[in-house]
Specification:
single chain, Rossmann fold, 12 strands, globular, disordered N terminus, binds guanosine-5'-triphosphate, binds magnesium ion
Length: about 500
Protein backbone atom coordinates (compact mmCIF):
# COMPACT_ATOMS: atom_id res chain seq x y z
CA UNK A 1 0.00 0.00 0.00
CA UNK A 2 1.46 3.40 -0.85
CA UNK A 3 2.14 5.57 2.21
CA UNK A 4 -0.52 8.21 2.63
CA UNK A 5 0.59 11.76 3.26
CA UNK A 6 -0.69 11.65 6.81
CA UNK A 7 1.47 8.68 7.70
CA UNK A 8 4.61 10.65 6.85
CA UNK A 9 6.99 10.72 9.74
CA UNK A 10 8.40 14.05 10.78
CA UNK A 11 11.73 13.25 9.23
CA UNK A 12 10.18 12.31 5.92
CA UNK A 13 8.11 15.45 5.98
CA UNK A 14 11.23 17.54 6.37
CA UNK A 15 12.96 15.76 3.52
CA UNK A 16 9.82 16.53 1.53
CA UNK A 17 9.94 20.19 2.62
CA UNK A 18 13.57 20.50 1.59
CA UNK A 19 12.62 19.11 -1.80
CA UNK A 20 9.87 21.69 -2.20
CA UNK A 21 12.29 24.37 -0.98
CA UNK A 22 14.45 23.25 -3.84
CA UNK A 23 11.68 23.21 -6.39
CA UNK A 24 10.72 26.80 -5.53
CA UNK A 25 14.43 27.55 -5.64
CA UNK A 26 14.40 26.80 -9.34
CA UNK A 27 12.02 29.67 -9.97
CA UNK A 28 13.50 32.09 -7.48
CA UNK A 29 16.97 30.90 -6.58
CA UNK A 30 17.77 31.20 -2.90
CA UNK A 31 20.74 30.36 -0.82
CA UNK A 32 20.50 29.84 2.94
CA UNK A 33 23.60 31.07 4.66
CA UNK A 34 24.07 30.05 8.29
CA UNK A 35 26.08 32.39 10.50
CA UNK A 36 27.13 30.87 13.78
CA UNK A 37 29.75 31.07 16.51
CA UNK A 38 29.85 30.85 20.28
CA UNK A 39 28.32 33.80 22.11
CA UNK A 40 30.14 37.11 21.60
CA UNK A 41 32.07 35.72 18.62
CA UNK A 42 30.76 38.54 16.40
CA UNK A 43 27.74 37.13 14.52
CA UNK A 44 25.49 40.19 14.77
CA UNK A 45 28.28 42.56 13.79
CA UNK A 46 29.27 40.32 10.88
CA UNK A 47 25.78 40.18 9.38
CA UNK A 48 25.14 43.90 9.93
CA UNK A 49 28.37 44.91 8.24
CA UNK A 50 28.00 42.44 5.37
CA UNK A 51 24.52 43.73 4.57
CA UNK A 52 25.53 47.37 5.04
CA UNK A 53 28.46 46.96 2.67
CA UNK A 54 26.25 45.32 0.06
CA UNK A 55 23.51 47.93 0.33
CA UNK A 56 25.87 50.92 0.44
CA UNK A 57 28.33 50.03 -2.30
CA UNK A 58 31.13 49.26 0.14
CA UNK A 59 34.70 48.71 -0.88
CA UNK A 60 34.57 45.07 -1.98
CA UNK A 61 37.45 44.57 -4.45
CA UNK A 62 37.70 40.85 -3.72
CA UNK A 63 33.99 40.20 -4.28
CA UNK A 64 34.04 39.63 -8.01
CA UNK A 65 30.36 40.13 -8.97
CA UNK A 66 30.37 43.64 -7.47
CA UNK A 67 33.88 44.54 -8.61
CA UNK A 68 33.11 43.67 -12.22
CA UNK A 69 29.92 45.71 -12.11
CA UNK A 70 27.59 42.78 -12.78
CA UNK A 71 25.31 43.40 -9.80
CA UNK A 72 22.63 45.88 -10.79
CA UNK A 73 20.42 46.06 -7.70
CA UNK A 74 20.53 44.92 -4.07
CA UNK A 75 17.66 45.18 -1.62
CA UNK A 76 16.28 43.73 1.60
CA UNK A 77 13.11 41.73 1.29
CA UNK A 78 10.71 40.30 3.89
CA UNK A 79 12.19 37.10 5.18
CA UNK A 80 10.11 34.10 4.15
CA UNK A 81 9.87 32.11 7.41
CA UNK A 82 6.94 33.31 9.48
CA UNK A 83 8.02 31.53 12.64
CA UNK A 84 11.55 32.92 12.83
CA UNK A 85 12.21 36.42 14.19
CA UNK A 86 13.66 38.84 11.66
CA UNK A 87 17.29 39.88 12.12
CA UNK A 88 16.85 43.48 13.26
CA UNK A 89 19.29 44.95 10.78
CA UNK A 90 18.12 48.56 11.10
CA UNK A 91 18.47 48.59 14.92
CA UNK A 92 21.93 47.07 14.80
CA UNK A 93 23.11 49.52 12.14
CA UNK A 94 21.61 52.42 14.03
CA UNK A 95 23.74 51.41 17.02
CA UNK A 96 26.90 50.77 15.01
CA UNK A 97 26.87 53.67 12.60
CA UNK A 98 24.84 56.41 14.29
CA UNK A 99 25.57 55.84 17.96
CA UNK A 100 28.93 54.17 17.51
CA UNK A 101 28.15 51.50 20.09
CA UNK A 102 28.30 47.75 19.55
CA UNK A 103 24.89 46.14 19.10
CA UNK A 104 23.27 44.25 21.99
CA UNK A 105 23.80 40.58 22.48
CA UNK A 106 21.14 38.55 20.59
CA UNK A 107 20.78 35.04 22.02
CA UNK A 108 18.39 33.24 19.69
CA UNK A 109 17.80 32.53 16.05
CA UNK A 110 16.94 35.26 13.53
CA UNK A 111 16.83 35.62 9.78
CA UNK A 112 17.16 38.28 7.05
CA UNK A 113 16.66 38.10 3.28
CA UNK A 114 18.75 40.14 0.88
CA UNK A 115 18.17 39.90 -2.87
CA UNK A 116 20.67 40.66 -5.63
CA UNK A 117 19.93 41.22 -9.31
CA UNK A 118 22.91 40.45 -11.50
CA UNK A 119 24.09 39.85 -15.04
CA UNK A 120 25.60 36.45 -15.50
CA UNK A 121 29.29 36.43 -16.38
CA UNK A 122 28.76 33.73 -18.98
CA UNK A 123 27.35 34.70 -22.38
CA UNK A 124 25.24 31.56 -22.44
CA UNK A 125 23.39 32.34 -19.22
CA UNK A 126 23.02 36.00 -20.19
CA UNK A 127 20.91 34.90 -23.12
CA UNK A 128 18.27 33.90 -20.65
CA UNK A 129 16.83 36.51 -18.33
CA UNK A 130 19.01 38.51 -15.91
CA UNK A 131 19.86 36.57 -12.76
CA UNK A 132 18.39 37.03 -9.31
CA UNK A 133 19.58 35.45 -6.08
CA UNK A 134 17.98 35.76 -2.65
CA UNK A 135 20.28 35.08 0.27
CA UNK A 136 18.55 34.10 3.50
CA UNK A 137 21.01 34.82 6.28
CA UNK A 138 20.30 32.81 9.44
CA UNK A 139 21.99 33.88 12.69
CA UNK A 140 21.95 31.17 15.37
CA UNK A 141 24.00 30.42 18.51
CA UNK A 142 26.89 27.99 18.06
CA UNK A 143 26.02 26.61 21.49
CA UNK A 144 23.05 24.85 19.87
CA UNK A 145 25.37 22.86 17.61
CA UNK A 146 27.28 21.53 20.61
CA UNK A 147 24.16 19.58 21.50
CA UNK A 148 24.37 17.29 18.48
CA UNK A 149 26.61 14.69 20.21
CA UNK A 150 23.94 14.32 22.90
CA UNK A 151 21.64 12.62 20.39
CA UNK A 152 23.94 9.61 20.34
CA UNK A 153 24.25 9.48 24.13
CA UNK A 154 22.12 8.08 26.90
CA UNK A 155 21.82 9.79 30.26
CA UNK A 156 24.63 7.76 31.78
CA UNK A 157 27.11 8.56 28.98
CA UNK A 158 26.18 12.22 29.11
CA UNK A 159 26.67 12.23 32.89
CA UNK A 160 29.98 10.39 32.78
CA UNK A 161 31.36 12.80 30.16
CA UNK A 162 30.24 15.87 32.05
CA UNK A 163 31.67 14.62 35.33
CA UNK A 164 35.01 13.64 33.76
CA UNK A 165 35.41 17.06 32.16
CA UNK A 166 34.51 18.77 35.39
CA UNK A 167 37.37 16.97 37.13
CA UNK A 168 40.23 18.49 35.17
CA UNK A 169 42.14 21.78 34.94
CA UNK A 170 40.42 25.05 35.64
CA UNK A 171 36.99 23.44 35.61
CA UNK A 172 37.65 21.45 38.77
CA UNK A 173 37.44 24.48 41.05
CA UNK A 174 34.42 25.91 39.25
CA UNK A 175 32.55 22.60 39.57
CA UNK A 176 33.20 22.11 43.27
CA UNK A 177 29.89 23.41 44.53
CA UNK A 178 27.78 21.53 42.01
CA UNK A 179 29.61 18.25 42.64
CA UNK A 180 29.34 18.86 46.39
CA UNK A 181 25.58 19.14 46.03
CA UNK A 182 25.44 15.94 43.95
CA UNK A 183 27.29 14.06 46.67
CA UNK A 184 24.56 14.92 49.19
CA UNK A 185 21.74 13.56 47.04
CA UNK A 186 20.53 9.99 46.62
CA UNK A 187 19.63 9.41 42.99
CA UNK A 188 17.74 6.22 43.77
CA UNK A 189 15.50 8.03 46.23
CA UNK A 190 12.06 9.35 45.27
CA UNK A 191 11.88 11.98 42.53
CA UNK A 192 11.37 15.45 43.85
CA UNK A 193 10.86 18.59 41.80
CA UNK A 194 12.76 20.90 44.15
CA UNK A 195 15.79 18.62 44.21
CA UNK A 196 15.79 18.41 40.42
CA UNK A 197 15.63 22.18 40.26
CA UNK A 198 18.45 22.73 42.73
CA UNK A 199 20.66 20.29 40.83
CA UNK A 200 19.90 21.83 37.49
CA UNK A 201 20.44 25.38 38.73
CA UNK A 202 23.70 24.47 40.36
CA UNK A 203 24.91 22.73 37.18
CA UNK A 204 23.86 25.75 35.07
CA UNK A 205 25.77 28.05 37.44
CA UNK A 206 28.86 25.94 36.90
CA UNK A 207 28.42 26.09 33.11
CA UNK A 208 28.04 29.86 33.26
CA UNK A 209 31.12 30.17 35.44
CA UNK A 210 33.15 28.21 32.84
CA UNK A 211 31.87 30.50 30.15
CA UNK A 212 32.61 33.76 31.90
CA UNK A 213 35.87 32.62 33.45
CA UNK A 214 38.90 34.79 32.79
CA UNK A 215 40.57 31.81 31.22
CA UNK A 216 37.78 31.77 28.70
CA UNK A 217 36.66 28.19 28.66
CA UNK A 218 34.26 27.52 25.88
CA UNK A 219 30.84 26.12 26.34
CA UNK A 220 29.75 22.62 27.23
CA UNK A 221 26.39 21.09 26.40
CA UNK A 222 23.49 21.26 26.99
CA UNK A 223 23.52 24.52 25.01
CA UNK A 224 20.16 25.77 26.28
CA UNK A 225 21.34 25.79 29.87
CA UNK A 226 23.17 28.98 28.97
CA UNK A 227 20.59 30.36 26.56
CA UNK A 228 17.26 28.91 27.75
CA UNK A 229 14.96 31.33 25.89
CA UNK A 230 11.30 30.47 26.11
CA UNK A 231 12.01 27.04 27.62
CA UNK A 232 13.38 28.47 30.86
CA UNK A 233 11.95 26.52 33.77
CA UNK A 234 10.37 23.78 31.67
CA UNK A 235 10.93 20.13 32.68
CA UNK A 236 13.04 19.59 29.54
CA UNK A 237 15.57 22.03 31.01
CA UNK A 238 15.26 20.96 34.64
CA UNK A 239 17.76 18.14 34.90
CA UNK A 240 21.49 17.72 35.40
CA UNK A 241 24.18 15.08 34.95
CA UNK A 242 25.16 13.11 38.05
CA UNK A 243 28.29 11.25 39.13
CA UNK A 244 28.33 7.44 39.17
CA UNK A 245 25.05 6.81 37.40
CA UNK A 246 24.23 3.10 37.65
CA UNK A 247 23.97 0.88 34.57
CA UNK A 248 20.74 -0.73 35.71
CA UNK A 249 17.23 0.38 34.85
CA UNK A 250 16.14 3.02 37.36
CA UNK A 251 13.41 2.31 39.85
CA UNK A 252 10.09 3.81 38.76
CA UNK A 253 9.46 7.13 40.51
CA UNK A 254 13.10 7.60 41.46
CA UNK A 255 15.08 10.78 40.94
CA UNK A 256 17.28 8.96 38.45
CA UNK A 257 14.25 7.92 36.38
CA UNK A 258 13.09 11.52 36.35
CA UNK A 259 16.49 12.80 35.24
CA UNK A 260 16.73 10.22 32.49
CA UNK A 261 13.29 11.04 31.17
CA UNK A 262 14.03 14.76 31.12
CA UNK A 263 17.34 14.26 29.37
CA UNK A 264 15.45 12.36 26.66
CA UNK A 265 12.88 15.18 26.52
CA UNK A 266 15.64 17.73 26.04
CA UNK A 267 16.83 15.80 23.03
CA UNK A 268 13.41 15.43 21.48
CA UNK A 269 11.87 18.85 22.17
CA UNK A 270 14.98 21.02 21.95
CA UNK A 271 17.81 19.43 20.01
CA UNK A 272 16.01 17.55 17.26
CA UNK A 273 13.63 20.36 16.24
CA UNK A 274 16.54 22.77 15.83
CA UNK A 275 18.42 20.45 13.52
CA UNK A 276 15.29 19.50 11.64
CA UNK A 277 13.76 22.92 11.16
CA UNK A 278 16.78 25.14 10.84
CA UNK A 279 20.09 23.39 10.39
CA UNK A 280 18.95 20.89 7.78
CA UNK A 281 17.96 23.69 5.43
CA UNK A 282 21.30 25.50 5.24
CA UNK A 283 23.40 25.57 2.05
CA UNK A 284 26.47 27.42 3.24
CA UNK A 285 27.89 28.19 6.63
CA UNK A 286 30.28 30.60 8.29
CA UNK A 287 31.56 29.77 11.77
CA UNK A 288 33.00 32.79 13.58
CA UNK A 289 35.54 32.24 16.32
CA UNK A 290 37.26 34.67 18.64
CA UNK A 291 40.66 33.07 18.15
CA UNK A 292 42.40 36.25 19.22
CA UNK A 293 40.83 36.19 22.65
CA UNK A 294 41.83 32.55 23.10
CA UNK A 295 45.38 33.28 21.95
CA UNK A 296 45.58 36.17 24.33
CA UNK A 297 44.52 33.90 27.20
CA UNK A 298 47.00 31.13 26.43
CA UNK A 299 47.20 27.49 25.37
CA UNK A 300 44.51 26.13 27.68
CA UNK A 301 41.93 28.49 26.14
CA UNK A 302 43.18 27.71 22.60
CA UNK A 303 42.91 23.99 23.17
CA UNK A 304 39.50 24.37 24.70
CA UNK A 305 38.40 26.30 21.62
CA UNK A 306 39.77 23.48 19.48
CA UNK A 307 37.56 21.01 21.31
CA UNK A 308 34.47 23.17 20.87
CA UNK A 309 35.30 23.67 17.20
CA UNK A 310 35.54 19.90 16.62
CA UNK A 311 32.06 19.50 18.04
CA UNK A 312 30.76 22.30 15.83
CA UNK A 313 32.44 21.01 12.67
CA UNK A 314 31.25 17.47 13.34
CA UNK A 315 27.74 18.74 12.53
CA UNK A 316 28.90 19.40 8.98
CA UNK A 317 29.89 15.80 8.48
CA UNK A 318 26.49 14.20 8.87
CA UNK A 319 27.65 10.68 7.90
CA UNK A 320 28.53 9.97 11.51
CA UNK A 321 25.14 10.92 12.85
CA UNK A 322 22.31 8.89 11.45
CA UNK A 323 19.61 11.24 12.70
CA UNK A 324 21.23 14.16 10.92
CA UNK A 325 22.07 12.34 7.72
CA UNK A 326 18.45 11.21 7.47
CA UNK A 327 17.42 14.87 7.40
CA UNK A 328 19.86 16.40 5.06
CA UNK A 329 18.28 16.41 1.64
CA UNK A 330 20.73 19.01 0.61
CA UNK A 331 24.18 19.33 2.01
CA UNK A 332 26.18 22.26 3.23
CA UNK A 333 28.94 22.27 0.62
CA UNK A 334 31.06 25.16 1.88
CA UNK A 335 32.05 26.09 5.41
CA UNK A 336 34.16 29.09 6.28
CA UNK A 337 35.82 29.28 9.68
CA UNK A 338 36.73 32.91 10.30
CA UNK A 339 38.73 34.43 13.13
CA UNK A 340 37.02 37.76 13.82
CA UNK A 341 38.20 41.07 15.22
CA UNK A 342 41.51 41.09 13.30
CA UNK A 343 41.43 44.89 13.52
CA UNK A 344 42.88 44.51 17.02
CA UNK A 345 46.18 43.65 15.33
CA UNK A 346 48.47 45.41 12.90
CA UNK A 347 48.10 43.97 9.39
CA UNK A 348 51.48 42.26 9.64
CA UNK A 349 49.89 39.90 12.16
CA UNK A 350 46.71 39.16 10.18
CA UNK A 351 48.31 36.28 8.29
CA UNK A 352 49.63 34.92 11.56
CA UNK A 353 46.17 34.98 13.09
CA UNK A 354 44.97 33.17 10.00
CA UNK A 355 47.77 30.59 10.37
CA UNK A 356 46.82 29.93 13.99
CA UNK A 357 43.19 29.55 12.97
CA UNK A 358 44.13 27.19 10.16
CA UNK A 359 46.13 25.06 12.60
CA UNK A 360 43.20 25.06 14.99
CA UNK A 361 40.82 23.94 12.26
CA UNK A 362 43.23 21.28 10.95
CA UNK A 363 43.56 19.80 14.40
CA UNK A 364 39.83 19.98 15.04
CA UNK A 365 38.93 18.17 11.82
CA UNK A 366 41.70 15.63 12.28
CA UNK A 367 40.34 14.86 15.73
CA UNK A 368 36.96 13.94 14.23
CA UNK A 369 38.38 12.18 11.19
CA UNK A 370 37.04 14.67 8.67
CA UNK A 371 38.79 15.86 5.50
CA UNK A 372 39.23 19.55 4.88
CA UNK A 373 37.18 19.49 1.66
CA UNK A 374 34.89 22.50 1.36
CA UNK A 375 36.33 24.17 4.47
CA UNK A 376 38.26 27.43 4.23
CA UNK A 377 39.83 29.59 6.90
CA UNK A 378 40.29 33.37 7.15
CA UNK A 379 41.12 36.12 9.60
CA UNK A 380 38.83 39.12 9.17
CA UNK A 381 37.26 42.10 10.87
CA UNK A 382 33.59 42.65 10.07
CA UNK A 383 34.03 46.20 11.30
CA UNK A 384 37.42 47.84 11.33
CA UNK A 385 37.41 49.95 14.49
CA UNK A 386 41.07 50.96 14.16
CA UNK A 387 43.45 52.55 11.69
CA UNK A 388 47.11 51.82 11.25
CA UNK A 389 49.93 54.27 11.75
CA UNK A 390 53.57 54.35 12.75
CA UNK A 391 55.14 56.24 15.60
CA UNK A 392 58.80 57.04 16.12
CA UNK A 393 60.14 55.95 19.47
CA UNK A 394 63.82 56.13 20.37
CA UNK A 395 64.69 56.47 16.71
CA UNK A 396 62.67 53.33 15.74
CA UNK A 397 59.50 53.28 13.71
CA UNK A 398 56.84 51.27 15.55
CA UNK A 399 53.66 50.02 13.86
CA UNK A 400 50.64 51.07 15.95
CA UNK A 401 46.87 51.06 15.67
CA UNK A 402 44.71 54.04 16.53
CA UNK A 403 41.10 54.29 17.55
CA UNK A 404 38.70 55.46 20.26
CA UNK A 405 38.82 53.11 23.28
CA UNK A 406 35.40 52.43 24.78
CA UNK A 407 34.45 54.40 27.87
CA UNK A 408 36.01 52.78 30.91
CA UNK A 409 38.81 50.98 29.02
CA UNK A 410 42.08 51.24 30.85
CA UNK A 411 45.58 51.38 29.40
CA UNK A 412 48.24 51.62 32.08
CA UNK A 413 47.03 54.33 34.45
CA UNK A 414 44.76 56.01 31.98
CA UNK A 415 41.02 55.36 31.97
CA UNK A 416 39.33 56.36 28.73
CA UNK A 417 36.13 58.36 28.37
CA UNK A 418 34.88 57.01 25.04
CA UNK A 419 35.74 60.22 23.19
CA UNK A 420 39.49 60.52 23.30
CA UNK A 421 41.48 58.72 20.63
CA UNK A 422 44.72 56.92 21.25
CA UNK A 423 47.46 54.90 19.56
CA UNK A 424 48.63 51.57 20.94
CA UNK A 425 51.27 49.08 19.97
CA UNK A 426 49.14 45.91 19.80
CA UNK A 427 52.06 43.45 19.91
CA UNK A 428 52.90 40.74 17.40
CA UNK A 429 51.68 37.19 17.14
CA UNK A 430 54.43 34.56 16.98
CA UNK A 431 55.71 33.40 13.59
CA UNK A 432 54.68 29.85 14.23
CA UNK A 433 51.36 28.73 15.70
CA UNK A 434 52.89 25.64 17.34
CA UNK A 435 53.38 27.29 20.70
CA UNK A 436 49.65 27.26 21.39
CA UNK A 437 49.32 23.55 20.75
CA UNK A 438 52.08 22.29 23.00
CA UNK A 439 51.19 20.37 26.10
CA UNK A 440 50.04 22.98 28.52
CA UNK A 441 52.60 22.27 31.22
CA UNK A 442 55.40 22.65 28.66
CA UNK A 443 54.54 26.30 28.08
CA UNK A 444 56.03 28.97 30.23
CA UNK A 445 53.33 31.61 30.39
CA UNK A 446 55.78 34.38 31.15
CA UNK A 447 58.45 33.94 28.51
CA UNK A 448 56.76 31.98 25.71
CA UNK A 449 53.51 33.78 25.17
CA UNK A 450 53.22 36.90 23.01
CA UNK A 451 52.64 40.12 24.85
CA UNK A 452 49.42 41.36 23.27
CA UNK A 453 47.72 44.57 24.07
CA UNK A 454 44.03 44.12 23.30
CA UNK A 455 41.95 47.21 23.87
CA UNK A 456 38.22 47.37 23.13
CA UNK A 457 37.61 50.20 20.71
CA UNK A 458 34.34 51.89 19.79
CA UNK A 459 33.01 51.28 16.29
CA UNK A 460 34.55 53.74 13.84
CA UNK A 461 33.02 57.00 12.70
CA UNK A 462 31.49 56.23 9.31
CA UNK A 463 31.95 59.24 7.10
CA UNK A 464 29.37 60.69 4.78
CA UNK A 465 30.21 61.70 1.26
CA UNK A 466 29.48 65.20 -0.03
CA UNK A 467 25.93 64.21 -0.89
CA UNK A 468 25.32 63.36 2.78
CA UNK A 469 25.05 59.65 2.03
CA UNK A 470 26.60 57.41 4.65
CA UNK A 471 29.53 55.47 3.28
CA UNK A 472 29.78 51.86 4.17
CA UNK A 473 31.30 50.38 7.31
CA UNK A 474 35.05 49.76 6.96
CA UNK A 475 36.12 46.12 7.27
CA UNK A 476 39.04 43.76 6.75
CA UNK A 477 38.64 40.93 4.21
CA UNK A 478 34.86 40.81 4.47
CA UNK A 479 34.78 40.81 0.65
CA UNK A 480 36.90 37.65 0.60
CA UNK A 481 34.39 35.97 2.86
CA UNK A 482 31.53 37.00 0.55
CA UNK A 483 33.36 35.67 -2.49
CA UNK A 484 33.88 32.31 -0.82
CA UNK A 485 30.37 32.04 0.62
CA UNK A 486 28.25 33.05 -2.37
CA UNK A 487 30.39 34.51 -5.18
CA UNK A 488 30.00 31.31 -7.22
CA UNK A 489 26.21 31.54 -7.06
CA UNK A 490 26.36 34.86 -8.90
CA UNK A 491 28.58 33.60 -11.70
N1 LIG B 1 36.96 45.60 16.94
C1 LIG B 1 36.00 44.74 16.58
N2 LIG B 1 35.18 44.24 17.53
C2 LIG B 1 34.22 43.38 17.14
C3 LIG B 1 34.05 42.97 15.79
N3 LIG B 1 33.02 42.09 15.74
C4 LIG B 1 32.57 41.97 17.00
N4 LIG B 1 33.28 42.74 17.86
C5 LIG B 1 33.14 42.83 19.32
O1 LIG B 1 32.57 41.63 19.78
C6 LIG B 1 31.34 41.88 20.48
C7 LIG B 1 30.34 40.79 20.16
O2 LIG B 1 29.90 40.93 18.82
P1 LIG B 1 28.44 40.44 18.38
O3 LIG B 1 28.37 40.57 16.91
O4 LIG B 1 27.39 41.08 19.20
O5 LIG B 1 28.58 38.91 18.77
P2 LIG B 1 27.46 37.78 18.72
O6 LIG B 1 28.17 36.55 18.27
O7 LIG B 1 26.29 38.23 17.92
O8 LIG B 1 27.12 37.67 20.26
P3 LIG B 1 25.77 37.08 20.95
O9 LIG B 1 24.61 37.73 20.24
O10 LIG B 1 25.91 37.49 22.37
O11 LIG B 1 25.83 35.61 20.77
C8 LIG B 1 30.91 43.26 20.01
O12 LIG B 1 30.14 43.88 21.02
C9 LIG B 1 32.23 43.94 19.78
O13 LIG B 1 32.75 44.44 21.00
C10 LIG B 1 34.95 43.52 14.81
O14 LIG B 1 34.90 43.21 13.61
N5 LIG B 1 35.90 44.39 15.27
MG1 LIG C 1 24.35 38.33 18.30
Amino acid sequence: MPPSLTSFTDDARIAFDTLTDRATGLVNPTLRLGVTGLSRAGKTVFISSLVHNLLNAGRLPLFEPVRSGRVSAIRLEPQPDDAIPRFQYEDHIQALVRERIWPDSTRAISELRITLDYQSASGWNRMFSPGRLSIDIVDYPGEWLLDLPLLAQDYKTFSDNAVTLAGGGVRAELAREWLGLCASIDMEGPADEMTARRLSESFATYLKACKSDERSLSTLPPGRFLLPGELDGSPALTFAPMPNVAETRPEKGSLRAMMERRFEAYKSVVVKPFFREHFARLDRQIVLIDALQAVNRGPEAVQDLERALSDVLACFRPGTNSFLSSLLGRRIDKVLVAATKADHLHHESHDRLQAITRRLVDRAIHRIGMTGAGIDVMALASVRATREATVREDGHLLPVITGTPMAGERIGDEIFDGIKKTAIFPGDLPDSPELFFREIDKVDEKTDLPDLNIVRFRPPAVEENTGGIALSVPHIRLDRAMQFLFGDRLA
